[in-house]
Amino acid sequence: MNDITLTREEREAKLEGLGCRRKRVEDIRFTQGKGNYVDDLKLPGMLHGDFVRSPYAHARIKSINKDAALKVPGVLAVLTAEDLKGVNLAWMPTLAGDVQMVLADGKVLFQGQEVAFVVATDRYAADDGVVAVDVEYEALPVLIDPFKALEPDAPVLREDIKDKMDGAHGPRRHPNHIFEWTVGDKELTDAAFSKAEVAIKELISYQRVHPSPLETCQCVCSFDKIKGELTIWGTFQAPHVIRTVVALIAKLPEQKIHVISPDIGGGFGNKVGAYPGYICAAVASIVTGKPVKWVEDRIENLTATSFARDYHMTAEIAATKEGKVTALRVHVLADHGAFDACADPSKWPAGFFNIVTGSYDFPTAYVSVDGIYTNKAPGGVAYRCSFRVTEAAYCIERAMDILAQKLGMDPAELRMKNFIKPEQFPYHSALGWEYDSGDYQTALNKALETVKYEDLRKEQAAKREAFRRGETREIMGVGVCFFTEIVGAGPSKNCDILGIAMFDSCEIRLHPTGAGIARMGTKSQGQGHETTYAQIIASEIGIPAEDITVEEGNTDTAPYGLGTYGSRSTPVAGAAIATAARKIKAKAQMIAAYRLEVHEDDLEWDVDGFRVKGLPEKFMSMKDICWAAYNSVPPGMEPGLEAVSYYDPPNMTYPFGAYVCVMDIDVDTGVYKVRRFYALDDCGTRINPMIIEGQVHGGLTEAFAIAMGQEIRYDETGNVLTGSFMDFFLPTAMETPHWETDYTVTPSPHHPIGAKGVGESPNVGGVPAFSNAVNDAFSFLGSTHIQMPHDFWRNWQAAKRLGVTG
Ligand code: CDP
């Protein structure tokens, strides 16, 4: 029976359910150095693998001589493509319907490509072996500039498919062309442009960046020859998908493959796909009969594993003189590198880029995307964003500012004028999405009032006058961004990975003493799932969150799930938790009715148990129901209290936010100061406000890094110029600005608890807010668009171009 000494509020507080700022339970082990990461794993007799990598971006391989390497003490084997051909693993399928070399087969296509895999008794011996492998290359012409990829005389990169004029996503019109993807009404859009009163057109590039999680990609593979079983511990964001991929390509029975993702030190999309390291470690373990560990170093991670973005977007908006938008037209040149290994749902070669109409009511729109090959690392992952959503948000939010500039209108006012109105939800966008809910006006108004927007604009006007008079060398920018995200892939009707529908799952087992375990198909990489998932269960079935253990990442015990990326955990797995909990609650109600000797309909839910309507003293707590489930269930009912749910969402969720960035830039040095950054997020029902704030802080820090410094840069011969944290900007607490967070709550109407995702919103909204601030600062000098990243040097270059510094 319930503790009658506690008030209702105290019982609710004890649960630590929805809305509670519950402290992260996983931090108990993380802050004491007790996390268990892949590299912590040490198995008896474990071997170590390391790669020989190509120094060339494009070259033919004339020969590979392993002899000297095999003489290095400790080196046991050197695998090349020829060895992998014997087991049909020299190439592997990518998530995007292409194939990719596991080890260089005849030629190399990007600097850092895997050429041979050296296996040794320790990592040092493996490295010595790598140095001793002698590879003879014949350099070939290199293609780095995406705008030259489709020229008639461009070097042909993929000789394996050069005559194949049909790819996974339709016709190809050049050997370096991967696909053309179009969406929207071209005729209607062209017609709107031909009669537009005002139109803007700008090439808006989103540079190649890299998710660079602190823990690099790694695995340990152990093949048990006696049982014929393969166990893989790895940094996998989607362990079940990895198991299925391994079963398909290694032709092993899926039940004999055990994939375990232990603690993961950040993923951000980098750990979704399958890398050559996983295949080589598995083959090496099968060959040697010993466990084999492969751990990337930082340079390898930055140069060879999945990049993000590299989208070159030509955006056009048509509008009336009063600033009402009438059409949007975007062409994207998408640089996918050497292989199309983008991690998107199968049918979406450009991800959800067609969210590019943003938060605005465009009557018509048309998008075309050309994917192309270049001599760069493959990838195209959703770096803390839902499949190309951050590219789309950047494109529309920059384009709206450029339109405002042309109209001589305030950018916030232009946004307000074109917002989708609350009464238009569910809203059907011109590019085919159904936005579930939103109240954009309220959110932007709250943001503008909080930052005292009008005062900022007055201050800016005064500063511009002072600059013109030569009284200051500093210019001030106010960056406004209003973004709409699309997260929670996804409804099986339009989202799958390799044919597997993108549902997610939860299995809850309650034990007799009123404690339990929830096993999930997702995998946290730092997002705090162990804390927040238990909160959903606590609110649903009245068992305190501290009595629920959340387990993820072991394919032997977890129900099949599609994993964690694209902020899909809360929208999809979060819903699976609620629906599994509701199945348990329904059974619990039957047990309580039986025990309290009333009809089920005579019971009502009350915080942590069932009460007989009208008889408040007759109450049975969930804790007591758990016990009863194992000893006195109604006749004919199976004992036990557990449920599993596979949740296929009816729609995506559409979180949104209003961000404002205030920045000062010294035109003589390019040095910027972020004076203020305000971020209002609406992710529907908030499970744990403290974790949401943490997610927003982390995402904004990454957005700051991308907008203000990150870029994977190449020289014209394909050398990676930014292969370490000396050159690739990873901000520390020293550079990171102070964040102000805020929120509104517009629940998702179709999600069982009304929650939308949040983990990626700050990356999606943060980048345009920073970039708009820089561009706004320079706009009065006649500039419309300055390409990211806005580092000191580029700011100074922009000032020079605009003639305000020497
Ligand atoms: O898929 P991923 O975990 O990266 O993203 P998410 O679903 O946005 O969740 C990130 C973290 O924020 C999780 O711990 C969620 O439970 C939490 N969250 C929340 O407390 N309330 C929301 N409405 C959304 C997420």
From TrEMBL:
Q: How does it assemble?
A: Dimer of heterotrimers. Each heterotrimer consists of a large, a medium and a small subunit.
Q: Which organism is it from?
A: Pseudaminobacter soli (ex Li et al. 2025)
Keywords assigned = Copper, Metal-binding, Molybdenum, Oxidoreductase
The protein's annotated catalytic reaction(s) are: CO + a quinone + H2O = a quinol + CO2
Q: Which Pfam families match?
A: Ald_Xan_dh_C, MoCoBD_1, MoCoBD_2
Full protein name: Carbon monoxide dehydrogenase large chain
- Superkingdom, natural source: Bacteria
Transmembrane segment boundaries: none
Q: Does Ribosomal protein show up as a keyword for this record?
A: no
* Cofactor needs: Cu(+); Mo-molybdopterin cytosine dinucleotide
Q: Which GO terms describe its molecular function?
A: anaerobic carbon-monoxide dehydrogenase activity; carbon-monoxide oxygenase activity; copper ion binding; iron ion binding; molybdenum ion binding
Under Enzyme Commission nomenclature, its number is 1.2.5.3
